[in-house]
Amino acid sequence: MRRAGLGEGGPGNYVTSGYSVYEEENEHLQEGLRAKVTALKSLSIDIGTEVKYQNKMLDDMDTDFDSTGGLLGATIGRVKQLSRGSQTKLLCYMLLFCLFVFFVLYWFIKLR
Protein backbone atom coordinates (compact mmCIF):
# COMPACT_ATOMS: atom_id res chain seq x y z
CA MET A 1 0.00 0.00 0.00
CA ARG A 2 1.35 3.43 -0.91
CA ARG A 3 0.97 6.53 1.18
CA ALA A 4 1.57 10.00 -0.08
CA GLY A 5 4.99 11.34 0.90
CA LEU A 6 6.14 8.15 2.59
CA GLY A 7 7.92 6.56 -0.30
CA GLU A 8 7.63 3.05 -1.66
CA GLY A 9 6.80 -0.05 0.25
CA GLY A 10 7.43 -1.14 3.84
CA PRO A 11 8.44 0.41 7.09
CA GLY A 12 12.16 0.63 6.28
CA ASN A 13 11.65 3.39 3.74
CA TYR A 14 10.70 6.19 6.17
CA VAL A 15 14.25 7.54 6.15
CA THR A 16 14.25 8.00 2.40
CA SER A 17 10.87 9.70 2.44
CA GLY A 18 11.98 12.82 4.27
CA TYR A 19 10.23 11.91 7.50
CA SER A 20 13.49 12.02 9.46
CA VAL A 21 14.30 15.45 7.98
CA TYR A 22 11.07 16.78 9.44
CA GLU A 23 11.84 15.11 12.77
CA GLU A 24 15.29 16.71 12.87
CA GLU A 25 13.86 20.09 11.95
CA ASN A 26 11.21 19.79 14.67
CA GLU A 27 13.84 18.84 17.24
CA HIS A 28 16.01 21.76 16.16
CA LEU A 29 13.07 24.17 16.44
CA GLN A 30 12.15 22.59 19.78
CA GLU A 31 15.65 23.26 21.12
CA GLY A 32 15.46 26.88 19.93
CA LEU A 33 12.09 27.29 21.62
CA ARG A 34 13.41 25.71 24.81
CA ALA A 35 16.34 28.16 24.83
CA LYS A 36 13.96 31.12 24.35
CA VAL A 37 11.69 29.92 27.15
CA THR A 38 14.68 29.55 29.47
CA ALA A 39 15.83 33.07 28.59
CA LEU A 40 12.34 34.46 29.25
CA LYS A 41 12.15 32.62 32.56
CA SER A 42 15.46 34.03 33.77
CA LEU A 43 14.44 37.50 32.56
CA SER A 44 11.13 37.35 34.42
CA ILE A 45 12.92 36.19 37.59
CA ASP A 46 15.35 39.11 37.26
CA ILE A 47 12.45 41.52 36.75
CA GLY A 48 10.72 40.13 39.86
CA THR A 49 13.88 40.58 41.91
CA GLU A 50 14.30 44.16 40.67
CA VAL A 51 10.64 44.97 41.45
CA LYS A 52 11.05 43.67 45.01
CA TYR A 53 14.21 45.75 45.46
CA GLN A 54 12.53 48.89 44.08
CA ASN A 55 9.49 48.38 46.34
CA LYS A 56 11.78 48.07 49.36
CA MET A 57 13.55 51.29 48.37
CA LEU A 58 10.19 53.08 47.94
CA ASP A 59 9.04 51.91 51.37
CA ASP A 60 12.28 53.19 52.91
CA MET A 61 11.88 56.53 51.14
CA ASP A 62 8.29 56.77 52.35
CA THR A 63 9.45 56.23 55.92
CA ASP A 64 12.19 58.84 55.52
CA PHE A 65 9.77 61.39 54.03
CA ASP A 66 7.29 60.79 56.84
CA SER A 67 9.95 61.42 59.49
CA THR A 68 11.21 64.51 57.65
CA GLY A 69 7.67 65.81 57.27
CA GLY A 70 7.11 65.42 61.02
CA LEU A 71 10.32 67.26 61.82
CA LEU A 72 9.50 70.04 59.35
CA GLY A 73 5.97 70.35 60.72
CA ALA A 74 7.28 70.73 64.26
CA THR A 75 9.78 73.37 63.15
CA ILE A 76 7.15 75.35 61.30
CA GLY A 77 4.93 75.13 64.36
CA ARG A 78 7.66 76.66 66.48
CA VAL A 79 8.20 79.45 63.95
CA LYS A 80 4.45 80.20 63.94
CA GLN A 81 4.47 80.29 67.71
CA LEU A 82 7.32 82.81 67.62
CA SER A 83 5.49 84.98 65.09
CA ARG A 84 2.32 85.11 67.21
CA GLY A 85 4.05 86.60 70.18
CA SER A 86 5.60 89.99 70.55
CA GLN A 87 8.91 88.61 69.37
CA THR A 88 8.60 89.76 65.77
CA LYS A 89 11.95 91.47 66.07
CA LEU A 90 13.55 88.13 66.96
CA LEU A 91 11.81 86.49 63.99
CA CYS A 92 13.21 89.14 61.64
CA TYR A 93 16.69 88.53 63.03
CA MET A 94 16.28 84.79 62.49
CA LEU A 95 15.14 85.34 58.92
CA LEU A 96 18.07 87.64 58.18
CA PHE A 97 20.46 85.13 59.73
CA CYS A 98 19.05 82.32 57.55
CA LEU A 99 19.44 84.46 54.43
CA PHE A 100 23.02 85.31 55.45
CA VAL A 101 23.87 81.64 55.92
CA PHE A 102 22.26 80.80 52.59
CA PHE A 103 24.32 83.41 50.73
CA VAL A 104 27.54 82.38 52.47
CA LEU A 105 26.95 78.75 51.50
CA TYR A 106 26.07 79.78 47.96
CA TRP A 107 29.23 81.86 47.70
CA PHE A 108 31.34 79.02 49.17
CA ILE A 109 29.93 76.46 46.75
CA LYS A 110 30.32 78.80 43.79
CA LEU A 111 34.04 79.33 44.57
CA ARG A 112 34.72 75.60 44.44
From TrEMBL:
<dbReference type="InterPro" id="IPR039899">
    <property type="entry name" value="BET1_SNARE"/>
</dbReference>
<comment type="subunit">
    <text>Interacts with SNARE complex members GOSR2, SEC22B and STX5. Interacts with LMAN1/ERGIC53. Interacts with STX17.</text>
</comment>
<dbReference type="GO" id="GO:0016192">
    <property type="term" value="P:vesicle-mediated transport"/>
</dbReference>
<keyword id="KW-0472">Membrane</keyword>
<keyword id="KW-1133">Transmembrane helix</keyword>
<keyword id="KW-0653">Protein transport</keyword>
<dbReference type="InterPro" id="IPR000727">
    <property type="entry name" value="T_SNARE_dom"/>
</dbReference>
<keyword id="KW-0813">Transport</keyword>
<dbReference type="GO" id="GO:0005794">
    <property type="term" value="C:Golgi apparatus"/>
</dbReference>
<keyword id="KW-0597">Phosphoprotein</keyword>
<dbReference type="GO" id="GO:0015031">
    <property type="term" value="P:protein transport"/>
</dbReference>
<comment type="similarity">
    <text>Belongs to the BET1 family.</text>
</comment>
<feature type="transmembrane region" description="Helical">
    <location>
        <begin position="90"/>
        <end position="109"/>
    </location>
</feature>
<feature type="domain" description="T-SNARE coiled-coil homology">
    <location>
        <begin position="20"/>
        <end position="82"/>
    </location>
</feature>
<keyword id="KW-0175">Coiled coil</keyword>
<keyword id="KW-0812">Transmembrane</keyword>
<protein>
    <recommendedName>
        <fullName>BET1 homolog</fullName>
    </recommendedName>
</protein>
<keyword id="KW-0333">Golgi apparatus</keyword>
<keyword id="KW-0931">ER-Golgi transport</keyword>
<dbReference type="GO" id="GO:0005789">
    <property type="term" value="C:endoplasmic reticulum membrane"/>
</dbReference>
<keyword id="KW-0256">Endoplasmic reticulum</keyword>
<comment type="function">
    <text>Required for vesicular transport from the ER to the Golgi complex. Functions as a SNARE involved in the docking process of ER-derived vesicles with the cis-Golgi membrane.</text>
</comment>
